[in-house]
Target: GNAT family N-acetyltransferase
Amino acid sequence: MNIAPAKVESAAGIARVHVNSWRTAYADILDGEFLASLSVEERELRWCGILQKEESQTLVAQHGEGVVGFISFGRCRDEDAPPSRGEIWALYAEPSVWGQGVGRALLQHAVQDMQSSGLGSTSLWVLSQNRRGIAFYEAFGFQRVAGSEKLFELGGRQVEEVRLLLQHDA
Model:
């Protein structure tokens, strides 16, 4: 597995991983018709725009020629966050490689990058019902932020999101 900065040419692979991961990870959380309606082509266009704007850093994990995972990260976007906090904006791996270290390797790279950039902590948002995701992040050292829960509508369903926080070693 090779981890490298994403390029605009990576957008198709990122989009495929993004859609496949959502369909599997959120199958019991979001509406099935909504998940089936997700379009790799539309996600590819979005990811082309994101990668061209360079508002965040994006890394891809590649196995052979194909993208098997990606992570997008940067400064924390939360209004109440200190300027020294980074944020994982998105982290997804192809479901066929779950449990094989792809997500952990991507997360390790991103956290190290943010830490070496002088950021003292990293946060992320995860759906409260995403037990697998929460367990993954907690095993890495992230902790729930009490009182951070927020409700919103996604794909025709009311869902709850919770913030997790990782304090970097000093």
